[in-house]
Structures are given as structure tokens and as C-alpha cells.
């Protein structure tokens, strides 16, 4: 897709790509190894890699753009909070919307991958998703994605 974008841009044109990077991160030690949302992101990685389309591809975008022929590629990383833990109002709002998205969409994201690729039952997936949602509400955990 990046090569097609390069081929179809006029000279001097540019492309912007934004995506979150997996897994979930934390720099201050508030996220423990058994934090369910961290386990969820690791399972997403495992499942998509089994399918041959890793969800970690965003970390390779710069290299992929350069390989396609783009020059002067800039990579700007920012954080996307997993819930509304930040004190900064803009980051807090991003975290709020991340939390809202997970509350309504977590099962939809997880069910097909977990049942068809990872071998979970629907019930196991739903129970796990409920646990992830409960843990995501813990604003004492300062988790985020790199974007």
C-alpha cells in the first residue's frame, strides 16, 4: 500500500500515517506484568502474527516508507493514554476516549481473533474482556500506547 501511495503522489507530495504501536507501555512502574489490558495487547500481537499480519507493523512504517522511495521521512512519536490518568487536559481527554472505545468495542475487536485464531471459547473471551474493561478503569495505572 505504501508503494502504491508513492507511485501515485505528484513530485513533492507527502503521506502521513498515524497508528498506535503495540504492546501497551508504562514508564513509571504502575503497570504490573499481570495487568489484563497488557495481556490483551500481547494476545492481539500473538493472534495477528499467527494470521501473518502483525499488529506491530506501525513500528516499521518509517523503514517501509524509505524502502518505497520516500525521502526526508520524519517520525514523530506521541503517547496515547489508555485511560484518563494524565494531568494534562488534552492527554486526559484522549485517555477518556480510549477508555470509552474499549468499554464499547473490546469484545468486537477480540471475539473473532480469540476464538478463530487463538482457540478460546466465546465465553472465555467475554469473561476476559470484562476483566480487561474492569482493569482499564484503574487510572492509577499510567499505561499508554506510542503513536
Question: Could you give the topology of this structure?
Answer:
Layout: H1 2-8, H2 36-51, H3 61-68, E1 79-81, H4 89-117, H5 122-136, E2 144-146
Antiparallel strand pairs: 1-2
Organism: Colletotrichum higginsianum (strain IMI 349063) (Crucifer anthracnose fungus)
Protein name: TAM domain methyltransferase
GO molecular function: methyltransferase activity
- What strand order characterises the main sheet? 1-2
Order of helices and strands: HHHEHHE
Shape: globular
The total beta strand count reads: 2
Largest sheet: 2 strands, antiparallel
Helix-and-strand structural type? mainly alpha
Q: What portion of residues belong to β-strands?
A: under 5%
Provide a count of the helices. 5
Radius of gyration: 17 Å
Low-confidence stretches: none
pLDDT averaged over residues: 95
Helix content: 40-55%
How many angstroms does the end-to-end distance come to? 20 Å
Taken together, the total number of domains comes to 1
